[in-house]
Amino acid sequence: MRTIVTLVTTLITLAPLVAFASQPPDAELPSTISRNPRVRPYDGRSAKVLLEGLERSVTMRAIVDRLEQLDVIVYVEMQPALRKKLAGTLTWLAATTSNRYVRISLNPEITHDALISALGHELQHALEVAEAPWVVDPPSLQAYYQKHGVSTAQHINGWDSLAARIIGDEVRRELAGVRTARVVADSIQAFNPQEWHIVYRRARSMLPP
Known about the structure:
single chain, alpha/beta, 7 strands, 7-stranded mixed β-sheet, 40% helix
């Protein structure tokens, strides 16, 4: 299954998206661990996939670390509507004066390691957007991929990039070399997105730099 960028505007309430911004700095944290993570899962399975990917893939850790330095906030969700269609998509959400927002949707039907590699693929798309500050809405996102991406016939207004395909393959290769996740629990019970920063910081402090 392919993963793509879809150029769809979603109407959202920005208050939940910026909820982390009001939290005070956490002085005891190492500077490499974000107080307000840029990559934020909506649900327990998305959180587990992300945390396991960070543990088992140095490539995914590098992408997430780079995203932490930029102004794009990435939400990750399981999306049943993708069943039998795509492994994942990246969708434009919104932009404010301080942040830009995108959403990664993953197909809950695909197998676990394939899901992690699909997330790596989509995180690369998020990084592409983050490193292009002039991408501020669906038209500018489409213009970016018309110039730098490749069109796909699998979805209307869908685009991909060679870099994202390479990253997905590299993450898959790294997963094959690290079969067991030691840090991530088998499940995240009663997952609360508002407490994600605590789960994330705890996990990152136990992972390689």
